[in-house]
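Example S7 (structure tokens).
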């Protein structure tokens, strides 16, 4: 069989994230050089592998994947019994900490590493204000890690080393090579965890094949808001209850509690899935201006949604949705047919391309102007953000036109479900809705998935004003 091919540069942290897991699994692979400095990632040959034109991409036999976390999850699932099992399932803690890496650690650490390590290699000087901001962000993130690890968690998902730990290796390594290494050294549990995971033979082998500091030209992913309201007045009327009151009021019929509010798209993502699975739940409204210790104990970053299902406590919406889809695999439609390279890829496309682009556009048009002191949308900014959404939707159009009825192929999966709440926000934002309408396959896909009874039930439970 042809060896596994990892496309990228051995010096890119997102590529090294994958190399680390291939080595942990003892898999032979070759790195096919895609040099960002020569623009090789925008060459048609590479675009055929990854239409977003980013490294890494991976070819394993007939399967081609992109998005480093999708690749890693696919490797960990497909080669589950080879080397350590990196994805023991179902594990609420594992799902949560995979998403913490993706949506808290990475957005804080990557701009910092760019400023301190990469920019100087390109002849630039670090911007002190940017460094300070992201160092402060990362300090807060690592405080949550410190508390989590101090609570008897040797690794992020508990007693065993998993993919959640492995996905941190490349950026942790680079961070410890910068002047902000003290962010790790000053937190004893984070430091002990790092000392442990960075001593693994597979990681030492990975390090031996790359040389840091690096000389790579790439744009770091900017920080994103993680909660985007469908409507600007989230606490309208009598719906407002504190988490404490709501907890006290929770009815005993179900042990499932969704902490959020009905108009947050990240909360609606979970409601849509629970309805697909036919699962009852109580919506526990969270007052984000007055977060209670009870709520913060479940969601240490203070964000909604969070979810309780019996003894399982989770936060991060995509972790919650994945956990529900795994735990209740045989209830209603199976939304996670595994192993599926396409499914893993499109789950991550939603998370790292679709959501950020759409959230920024919807925020600029619908949310920011209605905030206290918010001015009307800036047409030039709106045009720029709309272009980004159009670029993302072009990739969706190409993918759906290539014989994929749904994102992962013939069947409706979690990859589709995870888009629905944000697509609803799009449908209520005319400038964004026209971008969907202009792409016949995207429009047909949205019409198909939004006609599902579970989605109609979800929307009916939201009290949304017309656009
Ligand atoms: N979410 C993607 C991010 C990949 C990414 O940002 N790759 C960078 C290099 S580290 C890149 O290809 N940048 C070139 C570009 O975006 O044009 C992943 O994890 O694979």
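Recovered sequence:
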């Amino acid at each position: 069989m042809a060896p596994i091919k990892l496309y990228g540069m051995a010096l890119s942290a997102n590529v090294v994230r994958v190399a680390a897991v291939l080595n942990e699994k003892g898999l032979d692979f070759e790195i096919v050089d895609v040099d960002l400095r020569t623009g090789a990632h925008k060459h048609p040959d590479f675009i055929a592998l990854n239409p977003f034109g980013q490294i890494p991409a991976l070819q394993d036999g007939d399967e081609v994947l992109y998005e480093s976390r999708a690749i890693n999850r696919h490797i960990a699932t497909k080669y589950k019994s080879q080397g350590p099992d990196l994805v023991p399932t179902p594990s609420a803690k594992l799902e949560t900490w995979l998403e913490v890496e993706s949506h808290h650690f990475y957005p804080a650490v990557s701009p910092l590493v760019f400023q301190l390590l990469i920019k100087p290699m390109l002849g630039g000087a670090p911007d002190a204000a940017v460094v300070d901001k992201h160092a402060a962000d990362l300090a807060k993130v690592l405080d949550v890690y410190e508390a989590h690890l101090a609570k008897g968690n040797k690794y992020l998902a508990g007693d065993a080393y998993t993919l959640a730990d492995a996905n941190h290796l490349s950026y942790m390594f680079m961070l410890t090579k910068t002047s902000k290494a003290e962010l790790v050294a000053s937190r004893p549990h984070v430091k002990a965890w790092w000392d442990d995971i960075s001593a693994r033979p597979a990681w030492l082998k990975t390090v031996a094949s790359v040389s840091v500091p690096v000389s790579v030209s790439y744009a770091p992913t900017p920080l994103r808001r993680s909660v985007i309201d469908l409507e600007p007045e989230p606490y309208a009327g009598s719906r407002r209850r504190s988490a404490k009151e709501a907890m006290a009021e929770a009815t005993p019929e179900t042990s499932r509690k969704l902490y959020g509010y009905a108009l947050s798209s990240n909360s609606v993502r979970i409601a849509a899935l629970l309805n697909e699975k036919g699962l009852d739940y109580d919506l526990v409204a969270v007052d984000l201006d007055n977060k209670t210790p009870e709520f913060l104990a479940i969601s240490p970053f203070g964000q909604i949604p969070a979810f309780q299902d019996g003894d399982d406590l989770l936060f991060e919406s995509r972790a919650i949705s994945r956990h529900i889809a795994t735990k209740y695999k045989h209830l209603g439609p199976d939304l996670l047919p595994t192993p599926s390279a396409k499914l893993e890829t499109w789950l991550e496309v939603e998370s790292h391309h679709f959501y950020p682009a759409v959230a920024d556009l919807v925020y600029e048009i619908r949310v920011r102007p209605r905030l206290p002191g918010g001015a009307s949308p800036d047409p030039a900014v709106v045009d720029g953000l709309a272009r980004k959404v159009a670029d993302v939707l072009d990739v969706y159009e190409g993918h759906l036109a290539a014989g994929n009825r749904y994102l992962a192929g013939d069947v409706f999966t979690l990859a589709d479900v995870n888009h629905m709440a944000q697509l609803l926000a799009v449908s209520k934002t005319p400038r964004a809705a026209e971008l969907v309408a202009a792409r016949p396959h995207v429009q047909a896909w949205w019409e198909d998935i939004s006609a599902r009874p579970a989605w109609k039930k979800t929307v009916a439970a939201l009290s949304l004003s017309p656009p």
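Notes on this example. The longest strand covers residues 4-8.
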